[in-house]
């Protein structure tokens, strides 16, 4: 078989066997590889994004160059769990990172205030660039403006839609994550190009909402059980206020690092 360029869409290929098949430069989107057995494979320059890799085992591999960005709970390399080592090194490099796992209301207030300060420096760097650059993507990641729009969605989803039980907390500039399901009434405009100030205005509103929540919150209130009033996260059970606020903290922390990385490239 020498034909190339086949397209497989909306097909169930589970149980298939591929031998001596060239899949280089192939594109995989919304593909399920659960239980797959990959042997004697050349995965050079492979790019994996938004993937769930629970239970993955790699043996006999050679890794001359690999980068992993994500939430790492347990990662064993040659018999050593390196996750705690990575955590310790990240905290050494960025002492503010230890503040992103608060246990009381005072800790949450300090964490958000710390993010305010860090983001102010990041926005200052963004303002030094031409306005068009803030809509430019690096390595197909979100642009700076898209990143801020997505954080607006995160605030709306977890604080507005869950903590405050607002069934429609959205702003027209909100941007869900790429793999999110399309939902009627939820904005998802990928073509709009708002100015930085327009997005920052929405961001200020969302920050004020968080502050209002924190101002009225007690330590006991952190454990109050909540549920989503929007179509997102309805399957999640056992959520409480603290968990929702921590999701927003994590989103803010990680996406600022991504933004700093990409601004440096721009």
Automatic annotation (TrEMBL):
Domain of life: Bacteria
Protein name: DinB family protein
InterPro entries recorded: DinB-like, DinB/YfiT-like
Residue intervals of the DinB-like domain: 115-258
Species per Swiss-Prot/TrEMBL record: Nocardioides oleivorans
SUPFAM superfamilies with a match to the protein in the record: DinB/YfiT-like putative metalloenzymes (SSF109854), Pentapeptide repeat-like (SSF141571)
């Amino acid at each position: 078989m020498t034909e190339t360029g086949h397209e497989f869409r909306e097909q169930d290929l589970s149980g298939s066997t591929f031998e001596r098949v060239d899949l280089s430069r192939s594109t995989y989107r919304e593909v399920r590889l659960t239980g797959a057995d990959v042997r004697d494979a050349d995965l050079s320059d492979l790019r994996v994004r938004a993937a769930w890799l629970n239970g993955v085992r790699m043996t006999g591999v050679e890794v001359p160059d690999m980068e992993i960005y994500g939430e790492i709970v347990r990662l064993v390399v040659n018999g050593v769990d390196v996750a705690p080592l990575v955590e310790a090194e990240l905290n050494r490099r960025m002492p503010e990172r230890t503040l992103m796992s608060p246990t009381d209301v005072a800790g949450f207030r300090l964490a958000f205030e710390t993010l305010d300060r860090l983001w102010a420096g990041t926005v200052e760097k963004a303002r030094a660039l031409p306005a068009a650059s803030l809509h430019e993507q690096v390595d197909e990641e979100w642009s700076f403006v898209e990143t801020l729009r997505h954080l607006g969605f995160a605030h709306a989803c977890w604080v507005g839609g869950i903590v405050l039980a607002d069934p429609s907390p959205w702003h027209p500039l909100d941007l869900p994550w790429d793999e999110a399901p399309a939902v009627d009434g939820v904005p998802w405009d990928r073509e709009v190009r708002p100015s930085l100030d327009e997005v920052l205005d929405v961001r200020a509103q969302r920050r004020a909402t968080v502050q209002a929540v924190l101002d009225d919150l007690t330590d006991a209130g952190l454990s109050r059980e909540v549920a989503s009033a929007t179509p997102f996260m309805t399957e999640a059970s056992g959520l409480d206020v603290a968990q929702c606020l921590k999701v927003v903290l994590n989103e803010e922390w990680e996406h600022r690092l991504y933004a700093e990385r990409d601004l440096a490239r721009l």
